Amino acid sequence: MPDATPALLMYAAADVARVAGDHALRHFRSALAVETKGDGSPVTVADRGAEEAARGWLAARFPHDGILGEEFGTTRPDAARRWILDPIDGTKTFVRGVPLWGTLVACVAGDEVLAGAAYFPAVGEMVCAAPGEGCWWNGARARASDVASLGAATVLTTDPKFSHRPDRRDAWRALEDAALLSRSWADAYGYLLVATGRAEAMVDPIMGDWDSAPLLPILEEAGGTFTSWDGRRTAFGGDAVATNGALAEAVRRTLHGT
Q1: What is the CA radius of gyration of the chain?
Q2: E strand or H helix that includes residue 115
Q3: What is the reported pLDDT for 233?
Q4: How far apart are CA 48 and CA 37, in angstroms?
């Protein structure tokens, strides 16, 4: 579908996220063997099966597009348009029986994200977006909060120990000290909470492309911001800071101690 509209790509991203997420859900809270990948992260048959389901769906409908998936790498790397898949974002959460894991899907052309979707099947939440098409949460328009004081904000992260980037641990502590509330167990669910007005900021010190690519249009179309830690508007920065619109500068100043 070379001339697919932004709306069609948004709905396609949501559909493929649902296919993969529902496949993973069938394994949730079951006895699974957990393997450790080369980067130290866990993987299960649920991750691999969910990505295979997503790849099959895309091959049938977008046969000329490329695919980058966390578990099976790159297909058709020279394609003008590609799909980026994270079949289970939050595998550590998944294997512990906590329902805040999700499936992430982005459609991109170069560094431009054409559409993104994040599906959380264990809690029944879907959010999807495309530039100019809005951000949609279970069929209703999603909007970030209008909280304008960091002292009234809820801030989130995945790992408060910042195990992968201990050099940024003090930055997180400064942010949570300035905020009203701080919470973890977040993974991609934290970005959903910001996009839907239930939290004001979510930060991660390290992100893969499959973690971050869907999130930029979701946050921006909801009225929020999504950048790298150094403030660049990018879906491929290797880390992430998401905020509502009102607190973008305050969050970044706090993280950088300025």
Answers
A1: 17
A2: strand 112-120
A3: 97
A4: 12
What amino acid occupies position 15?
D
Q: Supply 20's token pair.
A: 């993969």
In the numeric block, which tokens belong to residue 116? 């993104």
Pull the structure tokens for residue 221: 């179309």
Crossing angle of helices 169-178 and 248-256, rounded to 10°: 130
**Which single residue is written with the structure tokens 């959380």?**
120
Q: How are beta strands 140-141 and 154-157 bridged, if at all?
A: unpaired
What's the confidence (pLDDT) of residue 98?
A: 96
Q: What is the pTM of this model?
A: 0.95
Please report, for the domain that includes residue 250, its CATH number: 3.40.190.80
Domains in the chain, number = 2
Residue 76 DSSP code: S
58 vs 187: CA distance, rounded Å:
25
Q: Encoding tokens for residue 3?
A: 């001339």
pLDDT digits (tens, 9 = 90+) for 31-84: 888 888 877 788 889 999 999 999 999 999 999 999 999 899 899 999 999 999
What is the domain range of residue 46?
Answer: 6-141
Q: Which residue among 119, 141, 163 closes a domain?
A: 141
pLDDT at 253 over 60: yes
CA neighbor of 203 nearest in space, from 250, 166, 239, 164: 239
- Looking at residue 219, its amino acid is L
Task: Give the DSSP letter of residue 110.
Answer: T
Name the domain boundary from 87, 119, 141. Answer: 141
